[in-house]
Structures are given as structure tokens and as C-alpha cells.
Design goal:
This protein is an alpha+beta fold and 174 residues long. It has 2 helices and 10 strands; from the N terminus they run αβββββββαβββ.
Length: 174
């Protein structure tokens, strides 16, 4: 009886290890290449994200797969590596694409033509956002993911469609 139990324990342990060594790489690959979730901190994207301020942070689904070819649209909410601090990721709305001419809010020049391979991003909460008005056009290489859904809190569960404020339309689209 004891020998049977040891045999069962070994088989169970081997099966567990096989499953573990398959599941971990699959999960890591999925989170790195397909999608992950992230908590949004700060007020720069209010009212779209974190409308309640610091009481409750929105949790969003970040889709890596959808931007693998740098395919973004005006109005998309994207996660990107901060141009000023590579250790930090920021979340902003795409206002203009490469070739567009945009009227800036507080940048060093009043008008900017977004260079090839770049986008112009801004937070929805004007004056409370560290965005392209501070650091200029952002390289597409800094893109991390597109925010596609709010997952938490449950009462805010929704899809995040591309939405460009009418007053932030590019003056000239390429």
C-alpha cells in the first residue's frame, strides 16, 4: 500500500512539473506579446480614466498584439515608455500621427509637423499631464500597448474606443 502511494506521489509530481514547465513560458509569452493588465495612476487621463481621482484607480487591458506593426489611430489610448524616464510607462491619447500638423498647447513652438516614425500624445486632463506638449513628438519605438478596455472597477467595465476631442484635430492630416 505504501509503495503504491509513493508511486502515485511521484507520478503526480512529474505531471505537475511537466504542466508547470509548459504553463510558465506560455504565460510569460502571452503577457509579453499579447496582452496584460495595468493599474492607471494619476489624473492626467481624467475624465476618461480615473474619474474619481485617487479614491479608485482604473485597471485597463493593454493589448500588445494590436500595435505590433505600430498601427495606431488618432484617439487611441496607448501605453508607452516615458521619453524622459525609461523606467516609467505612461498612458496617453494619440492626437496626431506622422506627417500631421498639430497646434500645440504649451510646446516651445505653436505648430508642429509630426516627423516620420513619431506620434503626438496628450493626456485628457489639460494642464495636469506630462505629454508631448512637454517633450515633443514621441518615437513609435516607445509604444508599449493600446488600452482597449477598463476592467476595474466593475461599474466602469467598458471598451475604450478611439476618441479624439474635436478641438484637438490635426490642422493637416497626411
Amino acid at each position: 500500500m505504501m509503495a503504491q502511494m509513493q508511486g502515485f506521489g511521484r507520478r503526480y509530481f512529474k505531471a505537475f512539473l511537466k504542466g508547470f514547465f509548459v504553463a510558465v513560458p506560455v504565460t510569460v509569452t502571452f503577457l509579453d506579446r499579447v496582452a496584460c493588465i495595468a493599474r492607471v495612476e494619476g489624473v492626467s487621463m481624467q475624465p476618461s480614466l480615473n474619474p474619481g481621482g485617487k479614491q479608485v484607480s482604473d485597471v485597463v487591458l493593454l493589448n500588445h498584439w494590436s500595435i505590433r506593426n505600430y498601427e495606431v489611430r488618432r484617439g487611441d489610448i496607448v501605453s508607452l515608455v516615458s521619453p524622459r524616464n525609461p523606467e516609467q510607462k505612461i498612458i496617453k491619447r494619440v492626437i496626431a500621427l506622422e506627417g500631421d500638423i498639430i497646434r500645440t498647447i504649451s510646446y516651445k513652438t505653436k505648430y508642429v509637423k509630426v516627423p516620420d516614425g513619431h506620434i503626438w500624445v496628450e493626456g485628457d486632463h489639460r494642464g495636469h499631464s506630462f505629454d508631448s506638449n512637454a517633450f515633443g513628438p514621441v518615437s513609435l519605438g516607445l509604444l508599449h500597448a493600446r488600452a482597449t478596455h477598463i476592467l476595474w472597477p466593475p461599474e466602469r467595465w467598458q471598451k475604450l474606443p478611439p476618441k479624439l476631442p474635436p478641438e484637438r484635430q490635426p490642422l493637416q492630416k497626411e
